[in-house]
């Protein structure tokens, strides 16, 4: 960072402030993590300077000897970590990966069926303000009103009624294990492609602490920066028979030159994900989420589905008589950062919903363990209850700051 400081002190100061913020707060945003120094260095490497339209061995510009090596390395590592037949590492992020996957498999206007956004699905799974809801004819399944879990019989019923060409599974705010085999049998029954978007859980899948969709789904898409702890990027894994269509959809259909610096950083992240300690990391992510769930339940909070199987929890604040927005703002003042989130069948508006989504991927990277979760939830509870009391929030913030000093960021 010395060069940034010297050339552009204004930008340096903003980056430094963000560094301090990340160091001195407890980050519970379920989609965030701390990438390692190795991943960050590869991401900031000289590959930033290289254009590489095309694929290894078939590029449009010269000077690709090392670009080809790094892209092949990332692909081989992804194949090995996920057991995939074919991998494309060029998507710029998760949303482009989904755009490219749809482009490869569908014609404009084709029917898709995905989890509705208000029930935990992602915008790109057919929501009406997103390209996926505009370019395709989208319908949605949700969760069961009683169990708040995916009801596979209901998914089957909707699939039989709608007859989608593509069935999408995967979510942004679903705290339970996803049964990919059940989705596959529904997709087969209606003759649909099965696509799994594992953006949130790809690190858990890589480590074997969540079942993998790779053997069953036709195509799997993911971001690489959430539980996988890599650079901000995207990835598509598929069966060999879709390889050509996927590759053509990524380039030249939807993207130009790949971000080779991100591919290099992904190669590093995949190396890290293949090490034995990554399995420990992913298991601790889940153990921390379960410990947090217990700590919330013991303080009288209701959790969507009653708990968690993965890296996230959805806390329903209704019984505490506070909206998600006010709770998240109070938490931030106390130094604990999470996002307000709709809960299934929410009666409040999406911008100020009834819940808060909490994830343990980032704090686990810092070394926080199940025994620390009660302390953190204690602070959250205090912050929510004293949300009008600025000095109480300030005192919690000070305690959080001190606590954070024991957990270095990478
Ligand atoms: N898919 C899912 C399930 C997600 O949760 C997200 C991001 O949160 C994405 C796709 C999109 O990723 P990005 O924001 O990198 O485009």
Global structural class: alpha/beta
Which regions contain 5 or more consecutive residues with pLDDT less than 50?
none
Radius of gyration: 21 Å
The main sheet orders its strands as: 4-10-9-8-7-5-6
State the end-to-end CA separation.
15 Å
Mind summarizing the main beta sheet?
7 strands, mixed
Write down the overall mean pLDDT: 97
Please state roughly what percent of the residues sit in beta strands, choosing from under 5%, 5-15%, 15-25%, 25-35%, 35-45% or over 45%: 5-15%
Number of helical segments?
Answer: 16
Instruction: Give the helix level as a range of percent.
Output: 40-55%
Strand segment tally = 15
List bound small molecules: pyridoxal-5'-phosphate
Mass-distribution shape: globular
Catalytic activity: (6R)-5,10-methylene-5,6,7,8-tetrahydrofolate + glycine + H2O = (6S)-5,6,7,8-tetrahydrofolate + L-serine
Enzyme class: transferase
Keywords: Amino-acid biosynthesis, Cytoplasm, Methyltransferase, One-carbon metabolism, Pyridoxal phosphate, Transferase
Family: Belongs to the SHMT family.
Tags for this entry?
binds pyridoxal-5'-phosphate; 15 strands; 410 residues
Helix and strand topology:
Elements: H1 2-7, H2 9-24, E1 26-27, H3 37-43, E2 54-55, E3 58-59, H4 65-82, E4 86-88, H5 94-105, E5 111-115, H6 131-135, E6 137-141, H7 152-162, E7 166-169, H8 180-190, E8 193-197, H9 202-207, E9 219-223, E10 234-238, H10 243-254, H11 260-273, H12 276-298, E11 302-303, E12 312-316, H13 324-333, E13 336-337, E14 339-341, E15 355-359, H14 361-365, H15 370-385, H16 390-404
Pyridoxal-5'-phosphate is lined by residues 31, 93-95, 122, 124, 170-172, 197, 199-200, 223.
Binding site for (6S)-5,6,7,8-tetrahydrofolate: 117, 121-123
Catalytic activity: (6R)-5,10-methylene-5,6,7,8-tetrahydrofolate + glycine + H2O = (6S)-5,6,7,8-tetrahydrofolate + L-serine
Subunit structure: Homodimer.
